[in-house]
Amino acid sequence: MTRLENRRILVTGASRGAGAAIARACADAGGDVLVHYASNRARAEAVAEALGPRSAGLVESDLAEPGAAQALWDAAILAGGRTPDALVLNHGIFEAAGIASDEADWRANWTRTLQVNLTSCADLARLAARSWLAGPGGSLVALASRAAHRGDDADHPAYAASKAGLIALIKTLARAHAGQGLLAYAIAPGWIDTEMAPQDAGARAKAEADVPLGRMAAPEEIGALAAFLLSGACASATGATFDVNGASYVR
User: Fold this and answer.
1) Is the per-residue pLDDT at 2 higher than 90?
2) Which residues are catalytically annotated?
3) Residue % of the chain over a pLDDT of 90
4) What CATH number is associated with residue 18?
5) What is the pLDDT of residues 42-53, one digit of tens each?
6) What is the rounded distance in angstroms from the CA atom of residue 163 to the CA atom of residue 21?
7) This model's pTM is above 0.85
8) Residue numbers of the domain that contains 97
């Protein structure tokens, strides 16, 4: 059984979807969860309320803003009363700009996507690592994507590149610091059945037809895996990427 007692866990993008499911799974395992959100406080409050006594507080930060990671990390320490023992990098954006886009849109998409999906994650991971390496260590899980391995559609090259970079970051942190108590893992989902998945019936059917399992991953599946990895039950898997895509991309 996954156990996270006496662990304080910061989950980014936790006001909905996979982030909310990860927060619930960590709380169910006995962890104390800090719920991060970008703007929708009402939804974040609803998630925190559902966690009951396992809620360690709310932290707001727009990680599209350069330098926002430091303020978020400081706020998490203040809200939780101490440095988090674990970090789940779940936040991200999926915005379109293909090679046919005009120059301004193309550059804006790459700048924003890399800032949110990669640079802010690297900034937060760095802050966590610097705290953990001075003490007993800590655990990090990052939500990447199958797109990091197989690429994405014509409209989302920046998204695929950002997620590939995120996996490389996790591998590097694990290789560099596993001996000092830092455990780092990546999860690479395909479609997750959340608001970010296709909602149009035709588009949804097309997406599901590409999945041999016949359906999208449930948010609860992502939550269960993240909580297990954070528990340290399989520390030797540090540096690994776990595919959760219904066999739509098998490496």
Assistant:
1) no
2) 159
3) 93
4) 3.40.50.720
5) 999 999 999 999
6) 20
7) yes
8) 8-244
Task: Please indicate, yes or no, if residue 55 is contained in any of the structural domains.
Answer: yes
Q: How many domains does the chain have?
A: 1
Q: Using CA atoms, how far apart are residues 187 and 148, in angstroms rounded to an integer?
A: 11
Tell me the H-state helices in the chain: 17-28, 41-51, 68-80, 103-114, 120-132, 147-150, 157-177, 201-209, 219-230
Sequence length of the chain is 251
Structural domain includes residue 64 = yes
d(CA 195, CA 201): 13
pLDDT tens digits, 91-130: 999 999 999 999 999 999 999 999 999 999 999 999 999 9
Cα–Cα distance for residue pair 55/57, rounded to 1 Å: 6
CB 51 within 8 A of CB 72: no
Local structure of residue 192 (DSSP, 8 states): B
Q: Which residues of 161-198 are buried (b: 16+ CB within 10 A; e: fewer)?
A: bbbbbbbebbbebbeebbeeebbbbbbbbbbbbbeebe
Is the pLDDT assigned to residue 135 strictly greater than 90?
no
Paired tokens of 84? 């988090």
Please give the structure tokens belonging to residue 155.
Answer: 């409209």
Q: Reading across the β-sheet that carries 55-60, which strands appear in turn?
A: 55-60, 32-37, 8-11, 86-89, 138-143, 182-189, 241-244
